[in-house]
Amino acid sequence: MKTTFKILAVLVAIVGFSAASYGQSATATASTTIIAPLTITKSTDMKFGDVAVGASSGGTVVLSPDGTRSATGTVHFSPSNTGDISAATFNLAGVSGYTYTITLPGNTAVKVVKGSDEMTVTDFTSTPSGTGTLTGGVGTLNVGATLNVSPGQATGAYTSTTFTVTVAYN
What we know:
mainly beta; Immunoglobulin-like; eight-stranded antiparallel β-sheet; three-stranded antiparallel β-sheet; 1 helix; elongated
């Protein structure tokens, strides 16, 4: 009986040590932090101001994100009657120090129309350009573009459909 007990004790010890040597385990936890969403709100619409164009050839109005404009071709501005001029301005809010990407409209997305007459708005630019960083949890995004004016463009007030500017956390 003592021999059987000794053999049984040795077998238990061997099996116990061999099972412990085959695998080890550990535990972990999972966690996350929900952050404030990045929001964008329009503050100011884009306005190219008053424009005159020649009858035989057109041109462009380039509106920069800082709100200044320049003309090409036969497009001209009146120095005394400029009309309303402004880059589009958007207010951003989110987590301070986080960076974001900016997506502007494509070159065929925006038309300004008056009845059946139309012009295209292309080459959107922004400040900041491409990416930005929220300071104090806020930021400002200014957007400019190029208005393409055809020769002899019909007179009158033109308005675009809405255009979309998208921001997303990096």
